[in-house]
TrEMBL record, chain A:
This is ABC transporter permease. The chain crosses the membrane at residues 38-60, 105-126, 138-158, 178-198, 244-267, 287-314. GO terms for biological process: transmembrane transport. PROSITE patterns: ABC_TM1 (PS50928). It is found in: Cell membrane. Residues 1-31 are annotated as: Disordered. It is a multi-pass membrane protein. Belongs to the binding-protein-dependent transport system permease family. Residues 101-313 form the ABC transmembrane type-1 domain. One of its GO terms (cellular component) is plasma membrane. Keywords: Cell membrane, Membrane, Transmembrane, Transmembrane helix, Transport.
Automatic annotation (TrEMBL), chain B:
One of its GO terms (cellular component) is ATP-binding cassette (ABC) transporter complex, substrate-binding subunit-containing. The keyword Transcription regulation does not apply. One of its GO terms (molecular function) is maltose binding. This is Sugar ABC transporter substrate-binding protein. Pfam families: SBP_bac_8. Residues 1-21 form the signal peptide. One of its GO terms (biological process) is maltodextrin transmembrane transport. Keywords: Signal, Transport.
Amino acid sequence: MTSVSDMTSVGGRLDRRARPTAGGPTAPRRRPRLGRQVARWLFVAPAVIFVLVFFGYPIVQNVMMSLENYTTTTFYTGEAPWVGFANYVTVFTNPLFTTTVINTALFTVGSIVCQFVLGLGLALFFKRHFPLGGFLRSLLLLPWLLPLIASAAVWKWILDQGSGALNQFLGLFGVSPVPWLVSPSLALVAVIGVNIWLGIPFNTTILYSGLQAVPEELYEAASLDGAVGWKAFWHITWPSIRSVVGVVVVLGVVYTLKVVDIILGLTGGGPANSTQTLATWAYQNSFVQFLFGQGAAVSNVLIAVSLVFALVYLSMTRKEVDE
Amino acid sequence: MKNSRVFAALAGAASITLALAACGSGSSTASSGGKQTLTIEDYYTSTYDPLYKDCGQQVGVNVNPVHVAGAALIAKVLQQASSRTLPDVLMLDNPDVQQIAATGALAPLKDFGVSAPAGDVPGVVNAGTYNGQVYGLAPVINSIALYYNVDMLKAAGITPPKTWDELKADASKLTDASKGVYGFAMSNINTYEGTWQFLPFFWTNGGDEKNINSPGAQQALQLVVDLQNNGSMSKSSVTWSQQDVNNQFMAGKAAMMINGPWQLPALNGTKGLNFASVPIPTRTADQQIVSPLGGETFNVPQTGDKTKMGLAAKFVNCLNTPATQVKIAGISGNVPAQESAAADWAKSHPQVQSFVETVKTARARTAELGPKWPTAATAIYTAVQNALTGKASPADALQQAQAQNK
């Protein structure tokens, strides 16, 4: 709908500008310039329309929704009474808000740190060329290729307390069954663990391509000066891939903040809300309890946090261009 | 050149408009041979199609059944409500009826002269009623009861428990930690399923969703916590769905479980499993069991086409006649909503006897709070989870729950 009206408004602007010049004596000379301008707009139009329709409209709608008493009734009548910041007050004063913020922070930091360290380790490992290296590296992408819901279901079975594969394995060493998804203090650890497994391919792939871009000559020159092993990594590799590292971390944070499916599949936010994050809580509010206004308020908090990291990312990539 | 480019852009816009218009007119009335066609939307499978056809014939319409995956139904209904493309007959899970009726998307059945069949259990009428008007009728209903492994109870020399004390004692006796067998299993998961399973203890002992924290509710929650803490119930129950509970029972890892009649086909299909069921134990022997009422209602959405809505109401009426109720019970394993039909049904199907008994006094989850039930339901399962994981004592957990129940 919106796309159609935008298209016609572009057309309308064209008509208004074209008309006065049509009969004028200078028309032949001015027309090409005007035409060029119109053409320029037309080239920009698809991008502008795309951003407005698929990003602008939903975000504005979400902000509006968070300021309204948006219920199931709204779907039928279209009426959503304006309530100002009442939804935000309800959300912020809910004791669950603090829990979800802490869980989101732990989940994000835990996932990112481990994903990055393991991903970098694997990328450095695969940088050395060895037989079957390429094959093994492609196997590493596996977590990425599996549908998330399927992965979650399999992990739920692996982590089961009574009959799970992990506890059966640990049992061989005399470890008594660990309540991975049952104990509120362990469930978040287990969920972070699965998310790390899921995020390693992304980190390894991007960091590996960053490592490929470091010129081999640098290492040769450094080795002549005696910089090998750790020293070579610290003085050559790290400074060379720093911008890639920034991108990986910032994108990782944004991707991790919004994780819903893996948590819903594993624990549904439980037990006793111990794995409830802002993202799952927003889902729970909107689609389970039908409190769409409050759900929108929670997700706006999430959008604001993500936006901060997106701006960091933008300024980082801009610096890179400037350099 | 440039003009042609502009023209192409406008032509593109026009074609989008046309495409959108084409989408909008998708649900036009299709009639063959002068007969109207009713679209029926449910989350069942095609096993219901012959029944729909039978009722279609009685009403004089063609039927077009659309089966949606269970979890997606409400989202689809909301989307259809906003785009005014609701089906002619809509099936809803009974706790959702008031929620959808409150939007105005459903028509009161009285408008078409349809009312609940005489003799339906009172819970059914309550579940389908919003603001004093009946919007939906459930042909078959269910609830939950206590299944037990006959062989295990015989080996332990006990009879099925009738009170909470007996339940605790029996569950403890039936537990064999060395074999990984628990005496008792139920679902305490963090979804409405967990609430549904806790309700019989909660309601029977005087618990009330308007004031979750009451002495009766504390006793009920204490019972579940005791069952877990004395080792009779697995700590994993906070992650088990009812399906998981049934799997534990079928695998012989639980001697007793709380579950519904929809598990009967799976249970009957398990070789070597000798099972039976009784109504869920109450705290004292003289208490009357109050279980939640389960089952799906059929409703007539406001489609704007009065003729078709009238036919849809007749169709809903046909589905709810005792004769059809019994047919649906045969397909689903549930209990006919009419008491006398249910009593007859229990004679020929002794396995559902305990459910027939239970549904007589079953209560609709939305009976008190209506569309506000989801908030209370969330608060209740959260309290159960907090108590079972040791995050709070039963009294504190219920107090926190009541604070959230607004």
